[in-house]
User: Which sequence fits this backbone?
């Protein structure tokens, strides 16, 4: 064997160690983000989830003014935690629509009466067709949709107190 | 008391390892015979102490001692005895203690049994073994002690993950670890030989039985793991190229190459550099595997510990041990004299091709397993799975199988091409016939499955060719070993190809009494009833199946959906019926709003050949091992008689 | 690709395609093969074919609906990659980032052959 080839395994090994060391220190959580951020919302139309509130379609999110799209479910615990923040967002003037995942009208109604109802419209997505269609992979998630129906930003997980101003600013920027 | 005794034994074992290392290093350096003489006993005592520590851990689990944190977190008083026992290693700390115990026992075994190796190399080998053990003792004692107390003691434990409550747990980790960690012996031998520069046929003959033994255990461990996942996880898959699975495959690939390479070194004093490299790589892959599986840097359905801090500790150990061995390699191997030359068309040439192809497959598996991390460093999130591994490694593996058919027929040094062609006519013709036949009977089959079946047929004939025209009782046992092992590969490959090409799956929402069809089978769900076990309750389906005439013989399958209390989990227990020509596999799902039960059915023709083949491969290895040991004993006796 | 189409299809098919097969056998075979290579996004390393969780069933439903509607498996894979990136497929698409991965077998084979030349060259005179 040629002399220098004897050192190749060591070089390869050191590269692997470097890679592993980097990965160990990179503590960022692996979340699956939507690849449609920055792209237009796909066409969709969902029936109404609860009586008295209209269903949701793409056209309702491209009215010229930026809106928030909240992906939630009555059985989702962090959704309860973020309910007050959604009410705060609504109070600050944000327009919020929702898509309810794998839910029933009775359960959603109970959820809304117990935790507040910040939504203008709620679509019934019991088969996750829209959730998967926009690249969301869990509940709760909140999307900032600009006036032309394009996804401007995605917030994964429940909305915390300090996320409220960030989302308001995102809505501003999407004008 | 017992927990403290266990911890104390572990500390003593670590201290003994330190002493063993010091004695070996100083004894060799200063050329002091008294120091060198103490190394063997130290290794034996170290092994005994580690085994004692592990035995005490098992005692704690058997007694369900809830004042020990590990027991409280992973066991439960209502568990069946077998799982209290096996549950000792069904968690990170316990399995790590098993790892270290096997390492120490391996050192003790070398000290007790190794007779061929010269004193200096043996001392260096035991020193290397102690050096490795030290790092892992440190890891256990500092970062993963199994003996930590829980105060106040728990009333009862959290229980063992139901997926692990299976005989597979009693079988798969120990055999896997004996193999995986047993490769440390080859690693230490290589380090020892690089230190003393004694690399030749004597060294190869000394190392060979240890490599074979570890390899046999590793083969059994992987085969058992594959079968366990197949029937436990409930979707009929036996290999997913999951990072944890790959972590066990990579040492196996290196060890397979090693055990072939060491034969060249023993017989012809060739391939010195390759053999040393493979010995280092094999255990390095074991250590890398241990790191991957416990650090959490890769997601896996089999992962049982996710702790980046512990991961960092292991990574440092890896850097020291593997880095150290590779530095030694670069520095020393250049001066290792090359062995005798040989032709391309020769047994040695065939074995070089074997080394090459196995190393390429190893490289592909390693790169594929690590690539998601590389992609992450480039800012992208990727998944690398079966489509990549099958497409990339599959064709090369098929080439390897073809080489396996030819290799044993080659003469050492040089062979004649025409004579070789003559020997290959029958296997080659059979291969072509099988491929043509499969294509004709099932034109939609993928090319890899067709080639796989053809090569399996050809290899199953060719593997017996070395026995042709020889007196079977005079054929050495180790030649039988080679024949059986290669035949086992053919059998396993046939099973894999058949499963991939001919499996039928049916997914139905079953009504009671209604027949459904999967493959040639007519299946009926007769009813679903509740059933109780030791620590679980379940709903069990009564499924009857028959093929041929409607009133033909019926088989009964009882798939269950089980509910465990601690920890609260529900699992699906597949029902499998093994026939001569395949397995019928049934899984019960949930009941829908109309009262129909989801039933998932598979008919898998010849799938059992996969694991039967694996067993044959291990048997071949065992025969080779016994054969070599016997031959060595015979040679020693003859030498002694000649000297008289 | 319109999601409305999916809903319309679902209304016409009685069985839940997340938990049952397409009646057309060749299409089901195509769908099954595809589902074995798509990753369950909320699991610890399983394909949507093998996973028991709800979301995997929903993804399977969408895959089967699209295949039944006549889309090619590659198109369905592409649709999912459009939404989740390459993470969702176990078959990494060829790109500048994945080129080293896909070229590895050839490169390794080449490197190995070159190294082996050195070993075998020492022929017997």
Assistant:
């Amino acid at each position: 064997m040629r002399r220098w080839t004897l050192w190749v395994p060591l070089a390869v090994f050191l590269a692997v160690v470097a890679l592993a060391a980097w990965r160990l220190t990179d503590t960022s959580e692996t979340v699956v983000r939507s690849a449609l951020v920055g792209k237009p919302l796909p066409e969709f139309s969902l029936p109404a989830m609860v009586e008295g509130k209209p269903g949701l379609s793409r056209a309702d999110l491209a009215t010229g003014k930026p809106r928030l799209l909240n992906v939630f479910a009555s059985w989702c615990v962090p959704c309860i935690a973020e309910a007050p923040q959604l009410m705060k967002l609504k109070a600050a003037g944000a327009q919020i629509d929702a898509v309810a995942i794998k839910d029933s009208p009775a359960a959603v109604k109970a959820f809304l009466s117990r935790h507040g109802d910040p939504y203008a419209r709620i679509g019934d997505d019991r088969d996750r067709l829209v959730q998967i269609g926009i690249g969301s992979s869990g509940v709760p998630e909140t999307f900032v949709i600009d006036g032309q129906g394009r996804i401007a930003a995605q917030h994964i997980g429940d909305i915390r107190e300090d996320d409220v101003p960030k989302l308001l600013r995102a809505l501003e920027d999407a004008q | 008391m017992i927990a403290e005794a266990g911890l104390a034994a572990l500390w003593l074992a670590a201290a003994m390892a330190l002493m063993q290392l010091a004695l070996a290093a100083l004894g060799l350096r200063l050329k002091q015979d008294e120091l060198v003489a103490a190394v063997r006993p130290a290794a034996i005592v170290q092994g005994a102490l580690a085994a004692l520590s592990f035995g005490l851990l098992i005692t704690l689990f058997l007694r369900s001692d809830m004042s020990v944190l590990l027991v409280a977190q992973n066991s439960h008083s209502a568990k069946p005895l077998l799982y209290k026992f096996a549950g000792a290693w069904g968690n990170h700390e316990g399995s790590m203690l098993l790892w270290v115990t096997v390492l120490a026992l391996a050192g003790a075994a070398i000290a007790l049994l190794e007779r061929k190796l010269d004193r200096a190399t043996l001392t260096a080998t035991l020193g290397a073994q102690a050096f490795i053990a030290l790092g892992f003792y440190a890891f256990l004692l500092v970062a993963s002690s199994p003996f930590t107390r829980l105060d106040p003691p728990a009333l009862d434990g959290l229980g063992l993950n139901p997926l692990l409550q299976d005989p597979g747990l009693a079988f798969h980790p120990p055999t896997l670890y004996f193999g995986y960690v047993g490769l440390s012996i080859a690693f230490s031998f290589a380090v020892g030989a690089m230190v003393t520069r004694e690399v030749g046929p004597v060294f190869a003959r000394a190392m060979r039985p240890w490599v074979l033994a570890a390899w046999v255990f590793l083969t059994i461990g992987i085969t058992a793991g594959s079968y366990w996942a197949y029937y436990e996880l409930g979707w009929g898959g036996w290999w997913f190229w999951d990072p944890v699975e790959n972590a066990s495959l990579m040492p196996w690939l290196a060890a397979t190459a090693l055990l072939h390479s060491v034969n060249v070194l023993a017989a012809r004093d060739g391939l010195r550099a390759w053999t040393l490299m493979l010995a280092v790589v094999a255990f390095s892959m074991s250590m890398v595997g241990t790191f991957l599986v416990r650090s959490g840097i890769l997601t896996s359905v089999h992962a049982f510990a996710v702790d980046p801090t512990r991961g960092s500790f292991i990574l440092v150990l890896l850097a020291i041990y593997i880095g150290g061995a590779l530095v030694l390699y670069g520095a020393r191997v250049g001066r290792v004299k090359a062995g005798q030359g040989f032709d391309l068309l020769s047994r040695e040439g065939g074995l070089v091709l074997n080394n090459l192809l196995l190393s390429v497959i190893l490289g592909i598996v390693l790169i594929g397993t690590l690539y998601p991390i590389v992609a992450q460093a480039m800012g992208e999130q990727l998944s690398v799975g079966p489509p990549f591994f099958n497409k990339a490694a599959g064709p090369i593996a098929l080439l390897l199988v073809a080489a396996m058919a030819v290799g044993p027929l080659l003469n050492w040094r040089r062979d004649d091409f025409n004579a070789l062609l003559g020997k290959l006519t029958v296997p080659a013709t059979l291969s072509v016939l099988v491929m043509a036949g499969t294509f004709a009977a099932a034109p939609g089959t993928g090319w890899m499955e067709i080639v796989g079946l053809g090569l399996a047929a050809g290899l199953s004939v060719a593997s017996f060719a070395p026995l042709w025209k020889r007196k079977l009782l005079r054929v050495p046992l180790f030649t039988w070993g080679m024949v059986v092992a290669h035949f086992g590969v053919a059998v396993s490959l046939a099973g894999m190809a058949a499963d991939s090409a001919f499996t039928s799956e049916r997914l139905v929402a079953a009504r009671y009494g209604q027949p459904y069809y999967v493959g040639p089978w007519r299946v009926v769900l007769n009813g679903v009833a509740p059933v109780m076990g030791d620590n679980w309750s379940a709903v069990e389906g009564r499924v009857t199946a028959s093929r041929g005439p409607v009133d033909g013989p019926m088989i009964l399958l009882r798939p269950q959906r089980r509910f465990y209390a601690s920890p609260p989990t529900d699992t699906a227990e597949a029902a499998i019926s093994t026939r001569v020509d395949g397995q019928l596999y049934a899984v019960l799902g949930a009941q829908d709003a109309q009262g129909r039960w989801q039933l998932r059915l598979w008919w898998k023709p010849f799938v059992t050949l996969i694991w039967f083949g694996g067993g044959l491969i291990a048997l071949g290895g065992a025969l080779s091992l016994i054969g070599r040991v016997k031959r060595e004993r015979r040679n020693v006796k003859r030498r002694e008689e000649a000297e008289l | 690709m319109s999601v409305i189409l999916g809903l319309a299809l679902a209304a016409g098919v009685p069985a839940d395609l997340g938990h049952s097969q397409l009646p057309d056998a060749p299409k089901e075979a195509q769908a099954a093969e595809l589902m074995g290579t798509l990753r369950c996004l909320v699991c610890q390393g399983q394909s949507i074919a093998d996973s028991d969780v709800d979301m995997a069933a929903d993804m399977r439903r969408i895959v089967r609906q699209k295949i039944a509607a006549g889309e090619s498996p590659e198109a369905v894979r592409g649709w999912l990659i459009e939404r989740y990136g390459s993470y969702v497929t176990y078959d990494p698409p060829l790109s500048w980032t994945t080129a080293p991965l896909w070229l590895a077998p050839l490169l390794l084979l080449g490197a190995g052959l070159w190294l082996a030349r050195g070993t075998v060259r020492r022929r017997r005179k």
